[in-house]
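Sequence in, structure out.
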Amino acid sequence: MNRFGPYDQNPLFAELYDYTPVYASRADVSFYVTAAGRANGKVLELGCGSGRILIPTAAAGHDCVGLDASRNMLARCREKLSAQPPEVQRRVRLVETSMTDFNLGESFALVTIPFRGFQHLLEVEEQVQCLLAIRRHLARDARLVFDVFHPNPQYLHDPAFHEEREETPETPLPGGRRFRRAWRLAAYRRAEQINEVEFIYYVTHADGRQERIVESFPFRYFFRFEMEHLLGRCGFRVAALYGDFDRSPLRNDSPEMIFVAEKD
């Protein structure tokens, strides 16, 4: 089962997503748009969310299907799409369903899972179901491209991260509102390779009313060879592995693990 519960528990989270600077400035958009340009055909993006990557991909001229389990995030994506030229809108189809159980009745030249969407799948059974569903939808010579974070041992056990840490300075929102964001790791579940993450939003409304809202979710982390074995179990081979969106090799201090996989 796909876990995007927080976005549908409070519609404000979908709006705040697009205004969070660390997301808006993330260097992955050009990486995935370039990957779409190298593919010879339609793109399927799993966990497309509000369209942060999907819409620029369509604007670059590529036909796309965006899949997400969150109704609020897809509503946000539709709202943003409506501001695009008609030809961009025609290139996009949105599907509300889980990334572990989908059958779209077509094949794709490229399947992507940007911004660590695969890490919302907590159980091995879910991960396998997702990869097998992707494999069924890949055309011949197509590729799967996705990123997960490269685990830093300090973030996986240090109790100092139980304390709130400011991440986003006060940022304006439409309607005279503003917000800032902190984060913390509420719990370490090391035996399951899961961290319980909390994002804490402090929202000031136009009338001066203040609100504290907590978005919490479990997040699975993976190690390199665990992921390679998981891909191999599901009929993939790793064609390339990067440590960041500049396509640099994976090193000890790399922040990301970006896998490019093909059918074995």
